[in-house]
Amino acid sequence: MDFTTLRYFVEIAREENMTRAANRLHISQSALSKRLASLEERLGTKLFRRRSFSIELTDEGRRLHERAQELLQLHDKIESEFRDLREPLGGTLAFGMAESRSVRLIARAVRRLKETAPKLLCRIESGDTSLVTMLLEKGILDFGLVVEEPDPHKFQAIELPVVDQWVLMLPKNHALTQKSALTFRDLKGLPLFCSAQGWRGDIERWSGGRTEELSLESHVTLPTNGAVFVREGLGFLLTFDGLVDAGETSPLTFLPLDPPLTAHSYLIWRRNATVTPIAERFLTVLQTLLAEKNIKANDLAEKS
Fold first, then answer.
1. CA-to-CA distance for 45 and 50, rounded, in angstroms?
2. pLDDT of amino acid 295
3. Is the dihedral of CA 70, 74, 77, 83 positive or negative?
4. Which candidate, 78, 75, 53, 58, places its Cα nearest to that of 6?
5. For residue 23, what is the enclosing H or E element?
6. Strand locations in the chain, DSSP E?
7. What is the pLDDT of residue 292?
8. Which residue segment(s) compose the domain that 145 sits in?
9. Which segment of 65-74, 230-239, 244-253 scores lowest on mean pLDDT?
10. Model pTM?
């Protein structure tokens, strides 16, 4: 089983159509079909189920698809690391990032690093702590930005100086905007959107274990998507302050929770793992940035 065949398989799964996949891969459909047939014969199973105008993965195909993506990501990461050894003016950094204002600090450090490494490339995966730590453990990422304290046995960490505050996003014309902060009682009966991690973690603790008394409309991964549902009058978004536009032209505003609820963020990387030269340079730049006297939480929150 070679990586080229795995890439072909992943492309077929993405397109759900042999003709479109062949066109994107710039090979003939017959050659692609032979590759797929050889892969299915090698594994002793059918990977796709034919439909009228498309194909879909079988259960076995979905299992292979998950593993193939992991293998290809790791393969690409290894290749980029060795390629970077020959590139003193750049390299590739792979980040996994939670939604947090601390992203601005990471971006500032990357911008400063690019002054001496102009060919630097960054790859960014967005996700919650479970996804980020999983990709880190598999060696697919260099660094993760998470908003809960990491396992010190698995990861080295730098606590970042930006504290995220939980707020409720709501329409500016809503009656609750007459309040200065919202209590648990204020949230009862409201259709709420919130990240799964935040709901099970911070919100569960803030409510004293009473989240079952609140009305969760849906989990959302990206607060910008949740804000769209708020604009359409479908509910209210629990998120961090500063992640969604609530300026003068926005129909939305936010209110903090009472008692206040905050979250700390951490840059993490695998303990006992080999750090690439460009990753070492990034850490040096970040630590220098953090040591500067003019780096304050409010400054990082307002400037890119």
1. 14
2. 58
3. negative
4. 75
5. helix 18-25
6. 48-50, 55-57, 90-97, 119-126, 143-146, 155-171, 191-194, 215-219, 236-240, 252-256, 262-270
7. 84
8. 77-160+266-302
9. 65-74
10. 0.73
Whether residues 233 and 169 share a domain: the answer is: yes
Give which of 149, 84, 108, 132 is closest to 280, Cα–Cα.
Answer: 84
Q: Say whether both 187 and 256 belong to one domain.
A: yes
Residues 145, 98 contacting (CB under 8 angstroms): yes
For residue 190 the two structure tokens come to 């409201």
* pLDDT band at residue 2 using 50, 70 and 90 as cut-offs: confident
- String of DSSP letters for 206-259: HTTS-GGGSEEEEE-SSHHHHHHHHHTTS-EEEEETTSS--STT-SEEEEEBSS
Instruction: Say whether pLDDT at 158 is over 80.
Output: yes
- CATH code for position 231: 3.40.190.10
What single letter denotes the amino acid at residue 41? E
Question: Do 34 and 69 sit in the same domain of this protein?
Answer: yes
Query: Are 295 and 155 part of one and the same domain?
Result: yes
pLDDT tens digits, one per residue of 57-90: 999 999 999 888 888 887 877 777 777 666 667 7
* Tally of structural domains, the chain: 3
Give the residue carrying structure tokens 């009966």: 189
CA angle centred on 210, ends 212 and 101, rounded to 5°: 95
